[in-house]
Amino acid sequence: MVFRVTVNSAWRATRTLWLLVLVSLSVCICVCRASSTQEDSAMENIVTEKKAEESHRQDSADLLIFIMLLTLTILTIWLFKHRRFRFLHETGLAMIYGVLVGVVLRYGIHVPRDISNATLSCPVNASPATLLINVSGKFYEYTLKGEINANEVDDVQDNEMLRKVTFDPEVFFNILLPPIIFHAGYSLKRRHFFRNMGSILAYAFLGTVISCFVIGLLMYGCVMLMKQVGQLDGDFFFTDCLFFGAIVSATDPVTVLAIFNELQVDVDLYALLFGESVLNDAVAVVLSSSIVAYQPQGDNSHTFEVMAMLKSFGMFLGVFSGSFALGVATGVFTFTKLRDFPLLETALFFLMSWSTFLLAEACGFTGVVAVLFCGITQAHYTFNNLSPDSQDRTKQLFELLNFLAENFIFSYMGLTLFTFQNHVFNPMFIVGAFVAVFLGRAANIYPLSFLLNLGRRNKIRSNFQHMMMFAGLRGAMTFALSIRDTATYARQMMFSTTLLVVFFTVWICGGGTTQMLSCQRIRVGVDSDQDNSRRSTKHESAWLFRIWYNFDHNYLKPILTHSGPPLTATLPPCCGPLARILTSPQAYENECQLKDDDSDLILTDGDINLTYGDITVSTDASGAHTSSGPAFAGGATSDDLDRELTYGDHELVMRGTRLVLPMDDSEPPFTDPHHRLHLP
Amino acid sequence: MVFRVTVNSAWRATRTLWLLVLVSLSVCICVCRASSTQEDSAMENIVTEKKAEESHRQDSADLLIFIMLLTLTILTIWLFKHRRFRFLHETGLAMIYGVLVGVVLRYGIHVPRDISNATLSCPVNASPATLLINVSGKFYEYTLKGEINANEVDDVQDNEMLRKVTFDPEVFFNILLPPIIFHAGYSLKRRHFFRNMGSILAYAFLGTVISCFVIGLLMYGCVMLMKQVGQLDGDFFFTDCLFFGAIVSATDPVTVLAIFNELQVDVDLYALLFGESVLNDAVAVVLSSSIVAYQPQGDNSHTFEVMAMLKSFGMFLGVFSGSFALGVATGVFTFTKLRDFPLLETALFFLMSWSTFLLAEACGFTGVVAVLFCGITQAHYTFNNLSPDSQDRTKQLFELLNFLAENFIFSYMGLTLFTFQNHVFNPMFIVGAFVAVFLGRAANIYPLSFLLNLGRRNKIRSNFQHMMMFAGLRGAMTFALSIRDTATYARQMMFSTTLLVVFFTVWICGGGTTQMLSCQRIRVGVDSDQDNSRRSTKHESAWLFRIWYNFDHNYLKPILTHSGPPLTATLPPCCGPLARILTSPQAYENECQLKDDDSDLILTDGDINLTYGDITVSTDASGAHTSSGPAFAGGATSDDLDRELTYGDHELVMRGTRLVLPMDDSEPPFTDPHHRLHLP
């Protein structure tokens, strides 16, 4: 029966694929037809309205190409998933299809020269944002699109078709990247992330900066060499090299992580890689904008100057912390009580996340970074306040947006290899870049791992280090940063090289993940629960983190969500009135109904209810809050902490049974005498 | 306890509202600051890059205003829903907030004159789509935005701020309208829709055309009068009047329907209103574009000409049927078998719906119409093939998109009352328009209802007619059509008047719905099931529809979904091999497992399983397919038809219990002797 179903679905999939191919063929024909009719109408009567209509039609057809690409990708992914092909991830596939369509667009479709472009040469002394042109009494409004290199003016008029399928680079930054980054923050696996937070921060901050400077220096050497050999046709300054270092330091191992997830690779390795890749995107964005902002004053604008460097450094700190603060603040703000109307709740959640991005951009911070921290904060606090229905809806919504945006970016990457007009492929630079990227990653992982291992109980083993080295794929963020500005010769060369780096890492490194895993003898099929109980040693988490955790659990969560212990229990008694004002009335209600239905669905409730057990019991025993107060204010035991982190993640597996009989099979977690009271 | 919860949530909501107000205030400050910094930087150094950055920042701030507006709307809606205020719907509220923000933007914020605009007066003999400007050796690219009236050239430079918050009108048509229309099609209540299909089609097609011509003629009279009195400052042709008639004929009773849904008003009335409003949007779009296309040849371009009219009429038919065919075709195409991967499935569904729109636009048809029929087709066929998870996901996704787009359009409508630059409010025209809209609606509803009642068993009573007359609200479609082109004097006057019509109908008619219901003594709180069984008379459905239904049920559904009876059972035996090729193998599997889990979730399964029961039984009895074949090919009995339509809608209510014991409480639906075999 199973076999029959497989054959049947495979047959159906093939049929669907063929239908799709037919549709895309007809689309291609439409595109050709549309472009030819455009030509005709342009010849016969140049009416603005008609031209606008034609241009709209053309735009629809162009967008349709991308949609068809995505559709084709989805269908092929499904075939692959169905047959358990693991060596090509959906993003790699999207790139391949993109390349194919790019080739067709570049060489397959001939579009006659569009005669409706014109170059004005009248004396204008500025380039205003809006321009009004007086054509024999009629006024036409034009908006500034950007500067164009003088030597490309002819190209601009030539390849109308290719330019049509070229998106405004800001689309990536302002529309496609935010959902991807937000989703990364929103789906961060919290337990293992927090347990490895120190290491992740080290890799993401220190590591990215190290990698950026190592790559920058190596590339500068390479560029110097090229200048000696005479291979360089334009300016290439040290800041350009550093900028290149910053943008290729953002790793995006989406392919690797998908395989890790599927094969259930060690959770700590997963957390390290995922956490690093999420945070180093943020670091790379701010770092690159700080490098661009480095502008020494005076005549020679490319010498080293301490003041300018300090200013850049200050800008890095300012923008990063500003974006961080803004993201966390809006994440905390989104604090809904619309549980009866999941649609309103989901809409509000979506709008608040989006407005974080816009607010950050409007204030001059970095929207992407703000959105990342907004996502992390919302997963930590807001998620607990949502109704179960909205929890599902928001997760699914951002999962879908992430999926579409990611595949769109990767297929566009493939397309742009052939449709981008100003590629500068310089073999020496490319070889240099590959070496530099490799060495930069190595300079990030190995020294930092060595230093971190000095402080870690649970060492990062050498095979993990090799795997992290190998998994340094480059992806959406690197592409979006490099395509953002391709005005100068240096930037064009960087863009072309970056594209090759992305292709190589996604296809070769991404495709070789399973081989690498078996070669490095990394365990697969690890049951996350078992693995976890094995390692729950007390002093594993950093003391800094533990202090923050206690503060968060005792004060922030009760104030911001309905799920913490009431503040009256955690604050010293002198703050009683304040505590009563700030505590959500629902927290008191929880007191009456410990087995409340929806509290059972809250992410971190496992521990909350447990801890809560402590409070009620000790309150009952001594008749006052104070007896249990210090234990909480001073610091929950490491056991508590460990338990919260343990139960945080598999809330769905254990739903409902947890309170009565926790399913940890290695050791009974209720070693506290207080807890025994709850057991039958 | 209930009271406590309410107070608590109200308090929390108030707090959230205040926070939101604070946030929006700070946003306003940011906007002011951003615009002032823009000024400064523009003065000191005109660098293209910096200007682009500033403009991006400004755009973010502008968009943020809208997001904040939506957020505020959502929070207030929630308060209203919580307190069961019914006289103001979310769309009406969104408009009020829009008006308020529009007033603030217009009169509250003073932005100094932007000096960076410039008018070129050099001799250009065309208005190309792309313009290259040579500013002292550097080339800047400009794109055409549109033509501007000569007398507004000064305005353009003045009100930079107001123009910044003005969206490209095409945004409404290409981004915001499609999800709304698709959602309408996807959520069409099928049972009552099909039962009243004849009447709905009559109201939507005939009625809209009648309304369009009545309004057009009345307005032409009004315009003639205005010309006599000397109140007309520009050209206003008969085609303009007809165009106005077409755009205000699209009804959008979203407010009324929301109340109907909440109060459980008579389902037939609901179906008539909803079906009419969904379809007349499509008719109005195509009608208006046909009227625009009416261009008599020769010198005097505004006389009547038979050929041009026939051409327009042909265009109407062509575009409408083309869009219809395309929508249905893609709806049928989206025919997935990715049930194991809901994310892929949802993504594919979304992409296919979108590509319908784009394909139609690229082919020169009307995307919105194609999307509507695509939605209806997908609800009918594709929905049955989706996994239960994807069924939820797609519903929720389009529900969210619809909600956001709708509220955005309505709040923009409010905003544009003050921020639109070229309002022409002419009292005489406005009064004339209100009278014409009223009479046009009356000329649609009353005569058609009279004619329809001649053929209907279940008459449309006069109170229903009054209610339909009253519920002729104008909304998103009317607005999107009227803002699309505001270049001429006539169009500007139409736009301003349309805005007032929308405001009046949404606020006054929408707000008075409950009063109107009680005034017309229309029953509320009707249980849809009871109501239904009461009326299940045999010959209610039209014969035309019954023929189509049989064809659909016996041939289309088995080919296109997994849920029909196998084709081998419905086709004559001579077509056996063909039938076996076309039938989904899953349909055979259903043969073995009648109580299959997921077939139980399929929309129309109630009847399918019943009908299916027929086949198996008769096949068993006679040993061949032929015995039951004719019964199906010839025509399912009206009872069958009625039963399918009955069970189609409340699949969730009866899930699981239906097959064993149907919940129809008035008469046992299993009067067929075959069915008795299934009962214990």
Automatic annotation (TrEMBL), chains A, B:
The keyword DNA-binding does not apply. GO terms for molecular function: potassium:proton antiporter activity; sodium:proton antiporter activity. It is a multi-pass membrane protein. Keywords: Antiport, Cell membrane, Endosome, Ion transport, Membrane, Signal, Sodium, Sodium transport, Transmembrane, Transmembrane helix, Transport. It is found in: Cell membrane; Recycling endosome membrane. Its main location: membrane. The chain crosses the membrane at residues 63-80, 92-109, 171-188, 200-226, 315-335, 347-376, 397-418, 424-443, 489-513. Residues 1-34 form the signal peptide. It holds the Pfam family Na_H_Exchanger. NCBIfam families: b_cpa1 (TIGR00840). PANTHER family: SODIUM/HYDROGEN EXCHANGER (PTHR10110), SODIUM_HYDROGEN EXCHANGER 6 (PTHR10110:SF94). Belongs to the monovalent cation:proton antiporter 1 (CPA1) transporter (TC 2.A.36) family. This is Sodium/hydrogen exchanger. It comes from Dicentrarchus labrax (European seabass). The lineage of its organism: Eukaryota, Metazoa, Chordata, Craniata, Vertebrata.
